[in-house]
Design brief:
By secondary structure, this protein is an alpha+beta fold. The chain has four domains: 67 residues, 2-Layer Sandwich (Alpha-Beta Plaits); 126 residues, no CATH class; 86 residues, Alpha-Beta Plaits, CATH 3.30.70.20; 33 residues, no CATH class. The chain is 33% helix and 15% strand. It has 14 helices and 16 strands. The strands form seven sheets. The chain has a three-stranded parallel sheet, with helices on one face. Strands 10-11-14 form a three-stranded antiparallel sheet. A two-stranded antiparallel ribbon has the order 1-4. Helix 5 runs parallel beside helix 10. 35% of the residues are buried. About 2% of the residues have low confidence.
Protein backbone atom coordinates (compact mmCIF):
# COMPACT_ATOMS: atom_id res chain seq x y z
CA UNK A 1 0.00 0.00 0.00
CA UNK A 2 1.29 3.46 -0.90
CA UNK A 3 2.21 5.72 2.01
CA UNK A 4 2.50 8.81 -0.15
CA UNK A 5 0.47 11.90 0.77
CA UNK A 6 -0.01 14.81 -1.59
CA UNK A 7 -1.06 18.25 -0.33
CA UNK A 8 -2.55 19.87 -3.41
CA UNK A 9 -2.49 23.28 -1.72
CA UNK A 10 1.29 23.21 -1.44
CA UNK A 11 1.88 22.25 -5.09
CA UNK A 12 3.02 25.10 -7.33
CA UNK A 13 0.58 23.90 -9.99
CA UNK A 14 -2.27 24.95 -7.71
CA UNK A 15 -0.89 28.48 -7.69
CA UNK A 16 -0.42 28.46 -11.45
CA UNK A 17 -1.97 25.62 -13.45
CA UNK A 18 0.41 26.12 -16.38
CA UNK A 19 3.55 25.86 -14.26
CA UNK A 20 6.33 23.90 -15.94
CA UNK A 21 7.33 22.26 -12.65
CA UNK A 22 7.25 18.46 -12.79
CA UNK A 23 10.27 17.59 -10.68
CA UNK A 24 8.32 14.88 -8.88
CA UNK A 25 7.44 13.15 -12.15
CA UNK A 26 10.98 13.41 -13.48
CA UNK A 27 12.52 11.81 -10.38
CA UNK A 28 9.94 9.03 -9.85
CA UNK A 29 11.55 5.63 -10.64
CA UNK A 30 8.26 3.88 -11.46
CA UNK A 31 6.77 5.01 -14.76
CA UNK A 32 3.27 6.54 -14.65
CA UNK A 33 3.11 6.58 -10.85
CA UNK A 34 2.90 10.37 -10.94
CA UNK A 35 1.25 12.02 -13.91
CA UNK A 36 -0.37 15.28 -15.02
CA UNK A 37 -4.06 15.40 -15.80
CA UNK A 38 -6.01 18.64 -16.26
CA UNK A 39 -2.79 20.50 -15.40
CA UNK A 40 -2.64 18.89 -11.94
CA UNK A 41 -0.38 16.24 -10.40
CA UNK A 42 -2.05 12.88 -9.72
CA UNK A 43 -0.83 9.70 -7.99
CA UNK A 44 -1.39 6.13 -9.14
CA UNK A 45 -1.35 4.56 -5.67
CA UNK A 46 -1.26 1.03 -7.08
CA UNK A 47 2.17 1.73 -8.57
CA UNK A 48 3.71 3.89 -5.83
CA UNK A 49 6.33 2.07 -3.72
CA UNK A 50 6.79 4.91 -1.19
CA UNK A 51 10.48 5.48 -1.91
CA UNK A 52 10.11 9.18 -1.09
CA UNK A 53 12.14 10.57 -4.00
CA UNK A 54 9.32 13.01 -4.79
CA UNK A 55 9.27 14.09 -1.13
CA UNK A 56 12.88 15.20 -1.34
CA UNK A 57 12.73 16.92 -4.72
CA UNK A 58 9.51 18.93 -4.28
CA UNK A 59 10.42 22.63 -3.80
CA UNK A 60 7.35 23.38 -1.66
CA UNK A 61 7.19 20.09 0.28
CA UNK A 62 3.81 19.12 -1.18
CA UNK A 63 4.59 15.41 -0.71
CA UNK A 64 4.99 13.51 2.55
CA UNK A 65 5.05 9.90 3.70
CA UNK A 66 2.88 8.35 6.37
CA UNK A 67 5.18 6.87 9.00
CA UNK A 68 8.18 8.99 8.02
CA UNK A 69 8.76 12.68 8.68
CA UNK A 70 11.78 14.46 7.22
CA UNK A 71 11.52 17.00 10.03
CA UNK A 72 11.62 14.28 12.70
CA UNK A 73 14.40 12.46 10.87
CA UNK A 74 16.54 15.59 10.66
CA UNK A 75 16.08 16.53 14.31
CA UNK A 76 16.89 13.00 15.50
CA UNK A 77 19.84 12.79 13.13
CA UNK A 78 21.33 15.98 14.60
CA UNK A 79 20.90 14.70 18.14
CA UNK A 80 22.42 11.30 17.39
CA UNK A 81 26.08 10.48 17.08
CA UNK A 82 25.39 9.00 13.65
CA UNK A 83 26.60 10.50 10.39
CA UNK A 84 25.26 7.66 8.21
CA UNK A 85 22.08 7.91 6.14
CA UNK A 86 20.92 4.54 4.82
CA UNK A 87 17.74 3.00 3.42
CA UNK A 88 18.09 0.21 5.99
CA UNK A 89 18.68 2.51 8.93
CA UNK A 90 16.80 5.81 8.99
CA UNK A 91 15.20 6.73 5.62
CA UNK A 92 12.97 4.93 3.07
CA UNK A 93 15.49 5.76 0.32
CA UNK A 94 18.48 8.08 0.44
CA UNK A 95 16.97 9.97 -2.50
CA UNK A 96 14.21 11.23 -0.17
CA UNK A 97 16.66 13.69 1.43
CA UNK A 98 17.07 17.17 -0.03
CA UNK A 99 20.51 18.75 -0.38
CA UNK A 100 19.56 21.53 2.03
CA UNK A 101 19.19 19.02 4.88
CA UNK A 102 22.61 17.58 4.04
CA UNK A 103 24.27 21.00 3.95
CA UNK A 104 22.69 21.95 7.27
CA UNK A 105 23.64 18.62 8.85
CA UNK A 106 27.27 18.88 7.71
CA UNK A 107 27.47 22.36 9.26
CA UNK A 108 25.57 21.60 12.48
CA UNK A 109 27.26 18.24 13.19
CA UNK A 110 30.66 19.55 12.04
CA UNK A 111 31.39 16.24 10.33
CA UNK A 112 31.17 14.51 6.99
CA UNK A 113 27.77 13.03 6.11
CA UNK A 114 27.83 9.52 4.65
CA UNK A 115 25.16 8.45 2.14
CA UNK A 116 24.94 4.67 1.91
CA UNK A 117 24.63 3.60 -1.74
CA UNK A 118 25.68 0.02 -1.05
CA UNK A 119 22.19 -1.34 -1.63
CA UNK A 120 21.54 0.54 -4.89
CA UNK A 121 23.05 -2.11 -7.16
CA UNK A 122 20.62 -4.77 -5.90
CA UNK A 123 17.61 -2.46 -5.88
CA UNK A 124 15.12 -2.33 -8.73
CA UNK A 125 14.91 1.42 -8.28
CA UNK A 126 18.68 1.62 -8.35
CA UNK A 127 18.43 4.36 -10.97
CA UNK A 128 17.75 6.70 -8.05
CA UNK A 129 21.47 6.51 -7.36
CA UNK A 130 21.79 9.24 -10.02
CA UNK A 131 19.46 11.41 -7.96
CA UNK A 132 21.51 10.67 -4.83
CA UNK A 133 24.69 11.68 -6.66
CA UNK A 134 23.05 14.94 -7.77
CA UNK A 135 22.01 15.72 -4.18
CA UNK A 136 25.53 15.06 -2.90
CA UNK A 137 27.16 17.11 -5.67
CA UNK A 138 24.89 20.09 -5.01
CA UNK A 139 25.47 19.89 -1.26
CA UNK A 140 29.24 19.69 -1.72
CA UNK A 141 29.26 22.63 -4.12
CA UNK A 142 27.43 24.82 -1.59
CA UNK A 143 29.61 23.62 1.31
CA UNK A 144 32.72 24.46 -0.71
CA UNK A 145 31.41 27.93 -1.55
CA UNK A 146 30.62 28.47 2.13
CA UNK A 147 34.18 27.49 3.03
CA UNK A 148 33.06 24.45 5.03
CA UNK A 149 35.55 21.58 4.98
CA UNK A 150 33.01 18.85 5.77
CA UNK A 151 31.61 16.93 2.81
CA UNK A 152 28.73 14.69 1.80
CA UNK A 153 30.23 11.36 0.75
CA UNK A 154 28.76 8.43 -1.16
CA UNK A 155 29.98 5.12 0.23
CA UNK A 156 28.96 1.51 -0.39
CA UNK A 157 28.43 0.75 3.30
CA UNK A 158 25.52 -1.64 2.63
CA UNK A 159 24.35 -1.22 6.21
CA UNK A 160 22.42 -4.16 7.68
CA UNK A 161 20.33 -4.12 10.83
CA UNK A 162 21.30 -6.23 13.87
CA UNK A 163 20.13 -9.85 13.86
CA UNK A 164 17.35 -9.26 16.39
CA UNK A 165 15.71 -6.62 14.21
CA UNK A 166 16.07 -8.87 11.17
CA UNK A 167 14.14 -11.61 12.98
CA UNK A 168 11.28 -9.20 13.61
CA UNK A 169 11.24 -8.26 9.94
CA UNK A 170 11.16 -11.88 8.88
CA UNK A 171 8.26 -12.59 11.21
CA UNK A 172 6.32 -9.83 9.55
CA UNK A 173 7.17 -11.30 6.17
CA UNK A 174 8.19 -7.85 4.96
CA UNK A 175 10.95 -8.83 2.59
CA UNK A 176 8.75 -11.40 0.89
CA UNK A 177 6.04 -8.81 0.26
CA UNK A 178 8.38 -6.21 -1.21
CA UNK A 179 11.15 -8.25 -2.87
CA UNK A 180 9.56 -7.89 -6.31
CA UNK A 181 9.59 -4.11 -6.06
CA UNK A 182 12.80 -3.10 -4.39
CA UNK A 183 15.60 -4.35 -2.19
CA UNK A 184 16.10 -1.01 -0.49
CA UNK A 185 12.83 -0.19 1.25
CA UNK A 186 13.39 -2.32 4.34
CA UNK A 187 12.91 0.89 6.32
CA UNK A 188 9.15 0.28 6.25
CA UNK A 189 9.40 -3.17 7.87
CA UNK A 190 8.54 -2.07 11.40
CA UNK A 191 6.12 0.68 10.45
CA UNK A 192 2.38 0.17 10.91
CA UNK A 193 0.03 0.65 7.96
CA UNK A 194 -1.46 4.14 8.08
CA UNK A 195 -4.24 5.27 5.73
CA UNK A 196 -3.22 7.84 3.14
CA UNK A 197 -5.06 11.15 3.44
CA UNK A 198 -4.68 13.09 0.21
CA UNK A 199 -6.35 16.49 0.20
CA UNK A 200 -8.90 17.08 -2.52
CA UNK A 201 -8.88 20.46 -4.18
CA UNK A 202 -11.48 22.87 -2.88
CA UNK A 203 -12.17 26.05 -4.84
CA UNK A 204 -12.83 28.16 -1.74
CA UNK A 205 -9.49 27.20 -0.21
CA UNK A 206 -7.66 27.81 -3.49
CA UNK A 207 -9.11 31.33 -3.67
CA UNK A 208 -7.44 32.20 -0.36
CA UNK A 209 -4.31 30.17 -0.99
CA UNK A 210 -2.19 33.01 -2.36
CA UNK A 211 -2.60 34.93 0.89
CA UNK A 212 -0.78 32.19 2.84
CA UNK A 213 2.98 32.20 2.34
CA UNK A 214 4.72 29.08 3.63
CA UNK A 215 8.48 28.60 3.84
CA UNK A 216 9.59 24.94 3.51
CA UNK A 217 11.09 23.44 6.66
CA UNK A 218 14.24 22.40 4.78
CA UNK A 219 14.90 26.07 4.03
CA UNK A 220 14.41 27.02 7.68
CA UNK A 221 17.04 24.53 8.88
CA UNK A 222 19.43 25.52 6.09
CA UNK A 223 19.30 29.23 6.96
CA UNK A 224 19.47 28.46 10.69
CA UNK A 225 22.61 26.36 10.18
CA UNK A 226 24.35 29.11 8.20
CA UNK A 227 23.52 31.83 10.72
CA UNK A 228 24.28 29.80 13.84
CA UNK A 229 27.69 28.79 12.48
CA UNK A 230 28.71 32.43 12.06
CA UNK A 231 30.35 31.63 8.72
CA UNK A 232 31.88 34.69 7.09
CA UNK A 233 29.76 35.11 3.95
CA UNK A 234 31.55 38.16 2.56
CA UNK A 235 32.67 37.80 -1.08
CA UNK A 236 31.17 34.30 -1.34
CA UNK A 237 28.60 33.41 -3.95
CA UNK A 238 26.62 30.64 -5.65
CA UNK A 239 26.29 30.21 -9.39
CA UNK A 240 22.57 30.02 -10.11
CA UNK A 241 22.82 27.27 -12.73
CA UNK A 242 24.56 25.00 -10.19
CA UNK A 243 21.82 25.09 -7.55
CA UNK A 244 18.22 23.91 -7.64
CA UNK A 245 16.75 25.46 -4.51
CA UNK A 246 16.97 29.25 -4.82
CA UNK A 247 17.75 32.04 -7.28
CA UNK A 248 18.75 35.64 -7.76
CA UNK A 249 16.58 37.91 -9.91
CA UNK A 250 16.44 41.28 -11.56
CA UNK A 251 13.56 43.22 -13.08
CA UNK A 252 13.62 45.34 -16.22
CA UNK A 253 12.06 48.40 -14.60
CA UNK A 254 11.27 50.01 -17.96
CA UNK A 255 9.01 47.10 -18.88
CA UNK A 256 7.53 46.35 -15.43
CA UNK A 257 3.99 47.72 -15.04
CA UNK A 258 3.71 46.96 -11.31
CA UNK A 259 0.78 44.62 -11.99
CA UNK A 260 1.41 42.74 -8.69
CA UNK A 261 1.17 39.29 -10.34
CA UNK A 262 4.70 38.10 -9.44
CA UNK A 263 4.52 38.69 -5.70
CA UNK A 264 0.82 37.98 -5.42
CA UNK A 265 1.40 34.42 -6.68
CA UNK A 266 4.77 33.71 -5.01
CA UNK A 267 4.15 30.67 -2.75
CA UNK A 268 6.74 31.56 -0.10
CA UNK A 269 6.65 35.36 0.01
CA UNK A 270 10.14 35.67 -1.47
CA UNK A 271 8.68 38.36 -3.73
CA UNK A 272 6.48 40.92 -2.02
CA UNK A 273 5.31 44.50 -2.16
CA UNK A 274 7.16 47.33 -0.50
CA UNK A 275 6.57 51.00 0.24
CA UNK A 276 2.78 50.85 -0.14
CA UNK A 277 2.97 48.85 -3.38
CA UNK A 278 5.41 51.31 -4.97
CA UNK A 279 8.27 48.80 -5.01
CA UNK A 280 8.86 45.07 -5.47
CA UNK A 281 11.07 43.37 -2.90
CA UNK A 282 12.91 40.05 -3.14
CA UNK A 283 14.25 37.90 -0.31
CA UNK A 284 16.45 35.15 -1.81
CA UNK A 285 16.43 33.09 1.39
CA UNK A 286 12.72 32.40 0.81
CA UNK A 287 12.93 31.63 -2.93
CA UNK A 288 12.49 27.96 -3.94
CA UNK A 289 13.18 28.48 -7.66
CA UNK A 290 9.68 27.35 -8.68
CA UNK A 291 9.74 29.89 -11.56
CA UNK A 292 6.06 30.81 -11.22
CA UNK A 293 6.93 34.51 -11.18
CA UNK A 294 8.88 34.19 -14.44
CA UNK A 295 6.19 32.16 -16.17
CA UNK A 296 3.33 34.43 -15.10
CA UNK A 297 4.93 37.83 -15.75
CA UNK A 298 2.83 39.37 -18.57
CA UNK A 299 5.64 41.69 -19.67
CA UNK A 300 8.42 39.08 -19.44
CA UNK A 301 10.50 41.55 -17.43
CA UNK A 302 11.64 39.24 -14.61
CA UNK A 303 15.03 37.57 -15.19
CA UNK A 304 17.50 35.27 -13.44
CA UNK A 305 20.92 36.60 -12.52
CA UNK A 306 24.06 34.51 -12.97
CA UNK A 307 25.21 34.63 -9.35
CA UNK A 308 23.82 34.99 -5.85
CA UNK A 309 25.94 36.55 -3.12
CA UNK A 310 25.72 34.32 -0.04
CA UNK A 311 25.53 37.31 2.29
CA UNK A 312 22.54 38.53 0.29
CA UNK A 313 20.98 35.07 0.41
CA UNK A 314 21.21 34.77 4.18
CA UNK A 315 20.69 38.33 5.35
CA UNK A 316 19.23 40.76 2.83
CA UNK A 317 16.01 41.88 1.19
CA UNK A 318 16.56 43.44 -2.22
CA UNK A 319 14.59 46.12 -4.04
CA UNK A 320 14.03 44.80 -7.56
CA UNK A 321 11.83 47.60 -8.89
CA UNK A 322 10.53 51.01 -7.84
CA UNK A 323 7.53 52.78 -9.32
CA UNK A 324 5.96 56.21 -9.55
CA UNK A 325 2.22 55.71 -9.88
CA UNK A 326 0.10 58.39 -11.59
CA UNK A 327 -3.52 58.39 -12.83
CA UNK A 328 -4.02 57.80 -16.55
CA UNK A 329 -5.23 60.92 -18.39
CA UNK A 330 -7.79 58.83 -20.26
CA UNK A 331 -9.27 56.37 -17.74
CA UNK A 332 -7.85 57.73 -14.44
CA UNK A 333 -6.53 54.27 -13.51
CA UNK A 334 -3.18 54.47 -11.65
CA UNK A 335 -0.24 53.09 -13.63
CA UNK A 336 3.55 52.98 -13.45
CA UNK A 337 4.88 56.21 -14.97
CA UNK A 338 8.10 55.77 -16.96
CA UNK A 339 8.80 59.43 -17.63
CA UNK A 340 7.18 59.56 -21.07
CA UNK A 341 3.48 58.97 -21.74
CA UNK A 342 0.87 60.00 -19.18
CA UNK A 343 -1.56 57.50 -20.68
CA UNK A 344 -1.62 53.96 -19.26
CA UNK A 345 -0.50 50.98 -21.38
CA UNK A 346 -4.05 49.67 -21.70
CA UNK A 347 -5.36 52.93 -23.13
CA UNK A 348 -2.35 53.26 -25.42
CA UNK A 349 -3.00 49.77 -26.72
CA UNK A 350 -6.65 50.62 -27.27
CA UNK A 351 -5.68 53.76 -29.19
CA UNK A 352 -3.31 51.75 -31.40
CA UNK A 353 -6.05 49.22 -32.13
CA UNK A 354 -8.48 52.00 -33.10
CA UNK A 355 -5.86 53.52 -35.42
CA UNK A 356 -5.33 50.13 -37.05
CA UNK A 357 -9.07 49.76 -37.59
CA UNK A 358 -9.27 53.23 -39.15
CA UNK A 359 -6.45 52.31 -41.54
CA UNK A 360 -8.39 49.22 -42.60
CA UNK A 361 -11.44 51.42 -43.22
CA UNK A 362 -9.41 53.71 -45.48
Amino acid sequence: MSRLNFDVYSCVRTYYRYSSCQKCIDVCPIEETLYIENDKIHINEDKCISCGACVGVCPTEAFSLNGFSLKDFYEKFLESGENLISCKLNVPCVSSIDSQYLIAAAIEKDSDIILDVGHCKNCQIGQLKNRIEDIANEANYVLKQLGVENKVKLEEVAYEKPEEEKKIENRRNFLKRFAKQTAGLAFWALMPDIPVENKEENEEIVKNLVEEKVVPYKREVFIKAIKSSEIDLKDKYLEIDKISFTSEKWIDNKKCTNCYVCYHMCPTGALREGNQKLSILFEPSLCVKCRICHEMCPEDCLHLSDKLELDTFANKIEVLAEHIMIPCEECMTPFSYKGDSTICPRCRKLEDEIKDLLKIGD
